[in-house]
Design brief:
The protein is mainly beta and 464 residues long. The protein folds into two domains: 1-340 and 396-464, no CATH class; 343-383, no CATH class. It contains three helices and 38 strands. Strands 2, 3, 5, 6, 8, 10, 12, 16, 18, 19, 20, 21, 22 and 23 form a 14-stranded parallel β-sheet that branches. A hairpin with a 4-residue loop joins strand 14 and strand 15. Helix 1 (29-36) crosses helix 2 (139-154). The chain is globular, with a radius of gyration of 24 Å.
Length: 464
Amino acid sequence: MERRSLTKRDLTSVPDSFGNQCPVNTDTLAGEMLLYFNGIFFDDFITGGGQDILGPLAVGGTFTAPYYVVNANERPDCSANIHDSFLSYGLVVGGLTDTIDTDVHGSALLGGGGDETQIHEADPPCEVYTDENTGRFDFEVAREASEDISELLALSTPNYIFRNSGEMVNLGGDSQVKIMTFNTCNNRNCPVDEALSDPTGIFFDDDNFNGPYGDVPSEDSTLVFNIPVLDGETIRLTGNQPSKGFNSCRTIYNFYPVNEAGQFKRDGTFTLIRETKSQLEGFSLAPRGHIRDGLVGNFAGTIVGLDYTWEYYPNGVEIHNYEAAGCDNFDGCLPVNPGGSTTTTTTTTTTTQHDVTTETTTVASTTVTTTTIETQEVPTTVTESSTATETTTETAYIKFPHHNKDHKKGKKKWDDKKKGYDKKGWNDKKGGSGDKKSWDDKNGKESWGKKDGGKKWGKDEHHW
């Protein structure tokens, strides 16, 4: 089936398409995978030695992570059936397992061969499986859904702009999704005819980003940072505290390839180097991006990429989850399966008597109906007609619920008067949180502390 070409859409004219009007759909496999896994990479995952990812990990290619810990801070439900849910999953590998002494909290499903003896189950009775392929995880479904979401968001008209100083300006409309498209392609000279936001202060400046001010969206809004990158080029994020003042559980960083005219390029690729001095918190969506992680800071939340390694291999950092960002899980809106469902029907008619058997199979969001004809005798005249119909809906949205775990940490109140989270109070004079900085400029170290061998983490003081 050929992909439907998406067209540019104006969010300001469809206020009920996102936000509070999102229908909750927990039945889609794509939505379930994107909600549950901390990291999803469609090709290789390679690290140099040590460190960990705090949540579950899915790798479509080769998995090489010596002395690494997977799903370090989660406690999976080992009683859950691997065919019915992801609740016991810690690691999924579709390609070769080529690692040394890797610990996994939760079930490990190794589908591509290799030395499974180097995967050590840290939470029995969860198991290491070598005969279940990738279980319920479907990398092709996850890839197509991620690319569709990225494309739909990229083609949406911005309804907000972000200025270098951190000022946010509402361009109008009632949509609960606030989209900003940043001038990050073609040496910060994207050749597009739309309102572009300035990425300098938040993504590229060596000074601290002190949080947004102005028309700061409310707590229940989903905030989208569209970040285009020229096909084949590299974007390097070097800012400090880029997520300060935003609701990490409702923030999406959409990195995507564009051509020289600034148009979305579905088959393009790019490299994303994260060297933010502190956490990049939220849903980092880069299904066509080669992810290169730096020596300081972290991804915190969900990270979806083409592949992953450390920029300064063999040295690198951990991948953090939403709890490290001060919230439970992603709770914003994602347009899962924007092409809708497709139904294909084929009917064959002959002049002879026959028995007709119809079988309908539903996989994820695609329904396929096939008709099988058992002919009793060879006809002298055959008339055959074939009708293929494609039914599409414009968008099917999903609002992800919280993880079923009862997290007691990271709960913050939203202060409508001050437009910020009030753990330590929003500081209007500073345009951001009144918390202490997470980066020690004098010593060049983060204040994030690891306890008990890295399995438990304290909260960074600057997080809400």
